[in-house]
Amino acid sequence: MKKKKINADEAAQKLEQIKNEIAKSFIGQKQLVENALITLIAGGHLLVEGVPGLGKTLLVRALAKAIGGDSKRVQFTPDLMPADITGNIMLDPASGKFVTRKGPVFTNLFIADEINRAPAKTQSALFEAMQEFQVTLDGENHKLPSPFLVMATQNPFEHEGTYPLPDAQKDRFLMKVIAEYPDIEEEKIMVTTVLNENTGAELSIESVNTVFGTDDFTAIKELAASLHLDPLIIDYAVRITTATRETPAVETGAGPRGSLSLVRCARARALLQGRDFVLPDDVKAIATEVLAHRITLSAESELEGLSANRIIENIMSKIEAPKGISGNE
């Protein structure tokens, strides 16, 4: 069977349709929607920090429906076991044979709600699936569906009974974003929509239409991976990342995965903009979300009230972006 081909203009139009479909149920927070799409196109995973009730689960469900995929959500708790995520091998009493029971991670978009409430062993089982895009059950490898994205959430305020993610595990997330409160107009629209002939208290995804199937989205991912990349863009991304290791305010800077992630996200953003080549602006637009969670501040910086976001912004302001880049090879 021949693989579907798609060009940058067609991909951008389809991605714009996806954003429009999501907007039917997930109101506002356009930057969060764009970052979720960038992460999915780049084949990575997303860490979202925000208080409960901002619609993070709704976003994932709407996105999954728009691309013809499915989604599953697991509330992470201190008693959650690895098998509750990945599945296990169990004896079927009727047949007397062992059968494979696949866990909820076998989906296109998996929501790990309040991931830092589960113990390290359970977190590690999920991170293995994120890294390998497969799960091993009784020595047999089971591939996860494509596309596959984990959106993990954590509450920035409630830390009692949590197991903070180690730096090595945070590094597995392509991006970390903050879910903000909607502005007043968006909140009025949301309240009106929910209460309009609806007895529930939540927005639904019934009005969201499927734009295309998961195979088509895989074609978009492959197109993003093939976009023209000027060597100067790679140099720019690496200079930004290495600067985090040379900043006195930072105890531990971003590793090489930071440079790779910058370029991967920049390619995805370029495609969202309808281009088949990457510009320095694509790198600038996503640098904070890609790098801030990969650095560890020094004790002095924390005492001074500096944030990782502010430090990345300062680094960006001091590094000159390359000029004269276009799509011409």
Task: Annotate the secondary structure layout.
Elements (H helix, E strand, L loop, with lengths): L7 H16 L6 H12 L4 E4 L6 H11 L4 E5 L7 H4 E6 L4 E6 L6 E5 L6 H13 L1 E4 L2 E4 L5 E6 L12 H4 L4 E4 L5 H12 L18 H12 L5 H15 L4 E3 L3 H17 L7 H12 L4 E2 L1 H5 L4 H11 L11
Parallel strand pairs: 1-8, 1-9, 2-5, 5-8
Antiparallel strand pairs: 3-4, 6-7, 10-11
Helix pairs in contact: 1-2, 1-3, 2-10, 8-10, 9-10, 9-11, 10-11, 11-13
Structural class given helices, strands, pairing? alpha/beta
The major sheet is characterized as:
5 strands, parallel
What is the terminal separation in angstroms? 32 Å
State which percent range the strand residues make up.
5-15%
**Which stretches are poorly predicted, pLDDT < 50 over at least 5 residues?**
none
**Global outline:** globular
What is the number of E strands?
11
Helical proportion, percent range: 40-55%
The spatial strand order of the largest sheet comes to 2-5-8-1-9
Radius of gyration: 21 Å
Q: What is the string of SSEs from the N terminus onward?
A: HHEHEHEEEHEEEHEHHHEHHEHH
Please count the helical segments.
13
**What do the pLDDT scores average to?**
89
